[in-house]
């Protein structure tokens, strides 16, 4: 067994820890791993180029930037804030719990790409969360406002991760099915996806409790 | 048939637009770095299939070189001011949400229509990439609606989009780069080596210990690779199937499904899952690049414990 390519992983960890530019860390690690795995330089370079080209779809979401940019220019974030500050009883916790439920339910229906950091979090959810926090707490200092925004992005991730596997035809369920089939274990997507439900409920309870805690902390610090 | 290729042409145009708008941004001291970066990305989207593997590899090295040498910058070009935006927000009211909602709405209705009507059979859209194509379509409809209603200058979308792209910077291509790294890890046999290592340290006879190591292995390997998809086949082959399912008689559906979800807890805690953790931090202009991860750890760890309990109870005791 050739253990040398594992050094590539060590390079990634080290590079991230030392805060080099992540793009540089990843490229260097890819080349080192390939060389240690016995490929020559041109082959590694080709594999890197091929992998990059084949995965362009990962970067496609950014075609929404021009639309989001225009709408922000015409006050979308301000409107999101205004809407929240008019709703009585709106708090960061309640708002984000609602978004968490929305994200989990729609991901479970197979609609995980209808929302996301560029489409919904930056233009809508984060400004709403900040507006709600300001109502609860008054003016936010920078660490608090950063924390509220980060929590909005975190809620988006938790919602989509722990909702999507309830949907039958999602890539990860098909991957589990395919991997186990390789060992002669035949399962239907339905048998697998029902076992995503207990974790989905735990995720809602745990993250929801943290959001309510955030509410309490904001209230506690109110002027 | 509408395939991903069409979308690549649109995306290439957007990146080319960002390059043009960067070139005009005199407030950015490093603007030529940005021009080159977005220009190369546009080249990749338009001509990637004609460049050959080595050509694409050189393009990747150029992108990395620009980012690694800190040649990317941010301008502070004038968009509208806070006061202007508040005035616009009053004037246009809640209708401002409509164009933003066109994107998810198109994806939602389109996916339903595609899956439950004969639309699927006429071959208009490549079934493998329906959601992405609909996302692109939604973005285009939203853009046209915004033009018709708000009547911005013709160049406004690329200027405003370019401003956002510049604020994300190199992080925008990191997820794609990590996917390429995953391919190289696979080719060099990193996964199988880790699997063999994991299998060699597993103690036989203790179900609960094996369950914990399986879950922690999923988390650790997911954090290294940046996604649970790469980790699952490896950990299933090392521990999940031979020990938990075959030797200890665990329920295969639970071991499979919940094992993957344990890996997702790892995704919440790693900068390698850049599209979920690093890009949003850049999009929200957080000072702390790892702010989103910090916000997620306290959910990920209790949820991992919950997954271990579910694996043990539902896998072996029900």
Please describe the structure with a list of short key phrases separated by commas or semicolons.
A: 223 residues; B: 318 residues; 13 helices; globular
What is the residue-mean pLDDT of chain B, rounded to a whole number? 89
Please provide the ordered H/E string of secondary-structure elements of chain A: HHHHHHHHHHH
Total number of β-strand segments of chain B?
0
Q: Count of DSSP helices of chain B?
A: 13
Whole-number mean pLDDT of chain A? 89
Range of helix content of chain B: over 70%
- Classify the oligomer: heterodimer
Q: SS-based structural class of chain A? A: mainly alpha
Describe the structure.
With 223 residues, chain A is an all-alpha fold. Chain A is built from 11 helices and no strands. Chain A has helices at 6-17, 22-36, 41-54, 65-73, 76-86, 92-108, 117-137, 142-164, 171-181, 189-194, 197-220. In chain A, α5 packs across α7 (117-137), α6 runs antiparallel to α7 (117-137) and α7 (117-137) packs across α8 (142-164). Chain A is globular and about 65 Å long. Chain B is globular. The N and C termini of chain B lie far apart (49 Å). The interface between A and B is large, with 119 and 146 residues.
């Amino acid at each position: 067994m050739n253990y040398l390519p594992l050094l590539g992983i060590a390079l990634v960890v080290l590079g991230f820890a030392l805060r080099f530019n992540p793009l540089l860390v990843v490229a260097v690690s890819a080349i080192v791993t390939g060389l240690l795995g016995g490929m020559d330089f041109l082959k590694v370079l080709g594999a890197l180029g091929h992998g990059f080209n084949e995965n362009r779809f990962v970067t496609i979401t950014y075609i929404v930037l021009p639309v989001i940019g225009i709408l922000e220019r015409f006050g979308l974030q301000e409107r999101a804030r205004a809407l929240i500050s008019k709703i009585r009883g709106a708090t960061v916790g309640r708002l984000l719990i609602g978004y968490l439920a929305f994200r989990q339910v729609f991901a479970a229906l197979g609609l995980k790409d209808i929302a996301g950091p560029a489409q919904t979090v930056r233009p809508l959810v984060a400004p709403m969360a900040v507006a709600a926090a300001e109502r609860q707490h008054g003016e936010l200092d920078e660490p608090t406002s950063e924390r509220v925004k980060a929590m909005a992005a975190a809620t988006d991730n938790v919602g989509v991760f722990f909702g999507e596997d309830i949907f039958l035809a999602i890539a990860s369920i098909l991957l589990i099915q395919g991997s186990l089939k390789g060992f002669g274990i035949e399962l239907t997507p339905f048998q697998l996806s029902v076992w995503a439900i207990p974790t989905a409920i735990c995720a809602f309870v745990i993250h929801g409790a943290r959001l309510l805690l955030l509410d309490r902390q904001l209230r506690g610090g109110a002027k | 048939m509408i395939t991903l290729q069409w979308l690549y042409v649109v995306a290439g145009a957007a990146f080319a637009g960002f390059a043009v708008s960067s070139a005009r941004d005199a407030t950015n001291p490093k603007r030529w770095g940005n021009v080159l970066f977005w220009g190369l990305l546009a080249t990749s989207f338009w001509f990637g299939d004609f460049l050959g593997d080595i050509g694409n590899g050189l393009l990747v090295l150029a992108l990395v070189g620009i980012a690694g040498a800190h040649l990317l910058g941010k301008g502070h070009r004038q968009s509208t001011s806070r006061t202007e935006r508040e005035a616009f927000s009053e004037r246009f009211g809640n209708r401002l949400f409509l164009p933003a909602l066109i994107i998810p709405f198109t994806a939602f209705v389109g996916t339903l229509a595609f899956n439950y009507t004969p639309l699927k059979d006429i071959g208009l859209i490549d079934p493998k990439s329906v959601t992405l194509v609909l996302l692109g379509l939604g973005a285009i409809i939203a853009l046209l609606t915004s033009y018709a209603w708000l009547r911005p200058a013709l160049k406004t979308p690329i200027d405003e989009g370019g401003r956002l792209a510049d604020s994300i910077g190199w992080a925008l291509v990191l997820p794609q780069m990590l996917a390429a790294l995953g391919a190289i890890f696979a080719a060099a046999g990193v996964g199988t080596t880790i699997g063999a290592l994991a299998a060699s340290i597993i103690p036989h006879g203790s179900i609960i210990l094996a369950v914990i190591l399986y879950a922690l292995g999923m988390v650790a390997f997911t954090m290294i690779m940046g996604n649970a998809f790469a980790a699952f086949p490896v950990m299933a082959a090392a521990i999940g199937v031979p020990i938990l399912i075959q030797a200890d008689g665990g329920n295969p559906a639970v071991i499979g499904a919940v094992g993957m979800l344990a890996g997702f807890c790892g995704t919440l805690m790693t900068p390698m899952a850049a599209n979920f953790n690093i890009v949003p931090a850049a999009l929200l202009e957080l000072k702390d690049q790892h702010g989103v991860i910090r916000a997620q750890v306290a959910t990920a760890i209790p949820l991992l414990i919950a997954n271990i309990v579910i694996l043990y109870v539902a896998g072996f005791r029900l």
